[in-house]
Amino acid sequence: MAEDTIRKIKWFWAWQDEQEEAWLRSMSQKGWHLSSVGLPCIYRFRAGEPRDYVYRLDYQTFSRKSKQEYQQLFRDVGWEYIGEMSAWQYFRKEVKEGEPPEIFTDVESKIAKYKRILPFLWFFWIILIAVIPARGISIDNPYPWWGVIQATQVFTLLIWLFFTYVIIKLTLRIRQLRRL
Amino acid sequence: MLRDDTNRYLPLTESTYYMMLTLIEPLHGYAVMKKVEEISKGTVKVGPGTLYGAFTLLEKEGLIVKVKEEDRRKSYVLTPKGKNLLMNQIKRLEIMTQKGLSVIDAL
User: Fold this and answer.
1) Do residue A53 and residue A14 come from a single domain?
2) d(CA B13, CA A21)
3) pLDDT digits over A88-99, tens only?
4) How does the average pLDDT of chain A come out, rounded?
5) Which residues contact A52 (CB under 8 A, 6 or more apart)?
6) In a domain, B96, yes or no
7) Nearest beta carbon to residue B50 from set A69, A101, A109
8) Same domain, A79 and A32
9) Taking CB atoms and an 8 Å limit, are B47 and A104 in contact across chains?
10) What is the side-by-side order of every strand in the sheet holding A80-85?
11) What ipTM was reported for this prediction?
12) Which domain range does residue B14 map to?
């Protein structure tokens, strides 16, 4: 990899998108501009003159055609499209005088963004809850693969707990916004 | 006029209200954003994330419809159901404003 690019791996929870935006802005202020994003949590930065770019994240899934229309809409008002990471859409715009630009201009649409994530989470949550009791967690040792099966069960349970945690935190974030 | 099944959408958010007002004629997203700022006398600005989210929902609910597409920009216009909803919203706002104006001197 060339000297003028760096790659960072950093984890942000779904309700921490504002922290993520702030982190990307601070990178740009140091002269590292986001050039692409990718799974898992990979951010690529290119070196350049320090600039005050703000980054904004949306959450959208769509067909290729709608995506072109979507990107055009943002481009029309000066937003540069950077990329997508598991349905999170990354945009940036340079701060001119005054307030940092926003892509969401009211609380309702910010809430709607988080609400678009929830159905996916619930989908996996329900699938996992169906899978766990189907195989069961038992303490007796009836067959030779017992250890492996128990390990996958525990693993599935941990993933289920992960989804439960994300759903709760995201719901709390929505409530917090609603009070504003 | 259609039978009234649009009350469940009320009240509209301020942004959605203004966006729907502009769609009395076919417009694409960028034009809607410009026009909302203009007709609201600068009190309401609509960002592209807010607009796209609102348009997706309005289209899904049959309140607006796509009429034209050129250079990746789609134009939308109100449907009869959308007009009906907007009419009900305006009536509600009128009641609110009238009442407000009647007490304004006492404030």
Assistant:
1) yes
2) 26
3) 999 999 998 878
4) 90
5) A25, A28, A29, A94, A95
6) yes
7) A109
8) yes
9) yes
10) A53-59, A88-94, A80-85
11) 0.88
12) 7-106
